């Protein structure tokens, strides 16, 4: 089943925007905080960039480091992004539901300018981007019943950070910086499960037939701001960086619609048909209640072990969100707001400058889940998978530009639920074991 997801500075921006227009799919979800690694060199470090951030991508990771940047602009495109999520034992006969996606995604564009001992900059970051298209049909037997079933789904998820940044050197060793991003989140999801189950009836020669169609639709748009404050210290080969940030929702438009139709009939031996049971239930929930988001604290340390070898490590701490859950309009609607668990992610990366023109980077990182699927509300989709990832990239610099090519991947096991569709699956399970794998190929250019 496919989940179908000017000046030189100006040309970089146009390239990123065109990529966005052409990008039909990619991997992303709302259950992790590190769905896409941002920036080309930063990706090679696995996101361990708060202590470095000395290029245009530093506007996103730690603006304080941009005072040391020799670059003026940076653009990164995820040339190919592939993900696979397998819901094990999803169907009553033990079959798995496999969801795949692939596509092209622009992830970052940043431009900066030096003013005295400081910098100003502007960046556009795509931190989440997904379009999935699901379609699956199957036939199987459950006890004495024969089932013909279908499952369809469409999902579109977008998360953008757009805004200015400023940084200033305080003295020879210290610098500070700040960013104020406008944030836009748009999530739209529609899924349906339905089919026929037939089995011998109670009377001789009779047949019972159950028809089920259950579907739901969610549309959720949030607009907000994300202030970020950064500090950086440098002393010879040693570097350290600290950042703190949080998303604040300003407006929200949430709409959920659910409908379930069940029709049970009995066909007698003489071919006459009788309606045994019929149910047509629906629910509609609308809200402007704002979703709270966690504080994020990052600490990074970097060291030039030799003139050509740099190692960087970083810990990202996301605090829990414990605000009261706002329930849907009735028991058939998922909660309007969520609570999130505290999450700690780490990354460690290394860079080797093989010559004045060629560099190589590799890294390991984690992307842990921010909630537990076992706590899912009615018709709430959740995936709880802790991911371990790796990254590898190389760069080449000519007289005016640097080109970077690389990839990153992650995988992990956990559990999840597809909005209770499994439970409605003629006896299938709601929460099942899942495994996930992701692979992304990136290309970047800097001036």
Automatic annotation (TrEMBL):
Keyword Transcription assigned: no
Topology of the protein relative to the lipid bilayer: Multi-pass membrane protein
Signal peptide: 1-28
Record InterPro entries: OMPP1/FadL/TodX
Major localization listed first in the record, in broad terms: membrane
Keywords, alphabetical: Cell outer membrane, Membrane, Signal, Transmembrane, Transmembrane beta strand
Entry's localization field: Cell outer membrane
Family annotation (Gene3D superfamilies): Outer membrane protein transport protein (OMPP1/FadL/TodX)
Keyword Signal: yes
Domain of life: Bacteria
Family: Belongs to the OmpP1/FadL family.
Protein name as annotated: Long-chain fatty acid transport protein
């Amino acid at each position: 089943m496919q989940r179908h997801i000017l000046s030189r500075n100006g040309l970089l921006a146009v390239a990123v925007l065109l990529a966005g227009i052409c990008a039909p799919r990619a991997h992303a979800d709302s259950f992790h905080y590190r769905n896409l690694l941002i920036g080309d060199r930063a990706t090679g470090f696995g996101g361990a960039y708060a202590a470095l951030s000395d290029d245009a991508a530093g506007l996103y990771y730690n603006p304080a480091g941009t005072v040391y940047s020799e670059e003026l602009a940076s653009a990164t495109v995820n040339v190919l992004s592939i993900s696979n999520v397998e819901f094990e034992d999803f169907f009553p006969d033990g079959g798995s539901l496999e969801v795949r996606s692939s596509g092209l995604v622009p992830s970052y564009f940043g431009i900066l300018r030096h003013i005295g001992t400081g910098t100003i900059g502007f960046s556009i970051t795509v931190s989440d981007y997904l379009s999935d298209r699901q379609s699956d049909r199957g036939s199987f037997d459950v006890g004495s019943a024969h089932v013909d079933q279908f499952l369809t789904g469409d999902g579109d998820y977008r998360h953008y950070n757009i805004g200015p940044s400023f940084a200033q050197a305080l003295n020879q060793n210290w610098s500070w910086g700040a960013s104020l991003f406008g944030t836009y989140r748009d999530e739209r999801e529609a899924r349906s499960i339905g089919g026929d189950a037939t089995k011998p009836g109670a009377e001789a020669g009779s047949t019972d037939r159950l028809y089920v169609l259950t579907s739901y639709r969610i549309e959720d748009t949030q607009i907000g701001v994300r202030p970020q404050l950064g500090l950086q210290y440098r002393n010879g080969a040693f570097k350290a960086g600290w950042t703190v940030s949080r998303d604040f929702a300003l407006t929200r438009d949430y709409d959920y619609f659910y409908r379930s139709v069940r029709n049970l009939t009995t066909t007698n031996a003489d071919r006459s048909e009788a309606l045994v049971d019929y149910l047509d239930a629906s629910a509609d929930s609308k809200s402007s209640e704002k979703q709270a988001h966690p504080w994020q604290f990052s600490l990074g340390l970097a060291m030039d072990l030799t003139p050509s070898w740099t190692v960087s490590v970083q810990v990202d701490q996301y605090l829990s969100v414990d605000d009261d859950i706002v329930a849907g309009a009735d028991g058939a609607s998922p909660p309007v707001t969520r609570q999130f668990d505290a999450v700690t992610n780490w990354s460690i990366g290394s860079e080797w400058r093989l010559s004045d023109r060629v560099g190589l980077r590799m890294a390991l990182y984690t992307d842990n889940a921010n909630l537990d699927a076992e706590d899912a509300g009615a018709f709430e989709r959740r995936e709880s998978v802790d991911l371990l990832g790796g990254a590898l990239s190389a760069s080449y610099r000519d007289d005016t530009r640097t080109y970077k090519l690389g990839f990153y991947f992650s995988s992990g096991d956990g559990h999840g639920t597809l909005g209770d569709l499994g439970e409605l699956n003629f006896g299938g399970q709601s929460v099942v074991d899942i495994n996930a794998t992701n692979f992304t190929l990136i290309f970047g250019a800097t001036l």
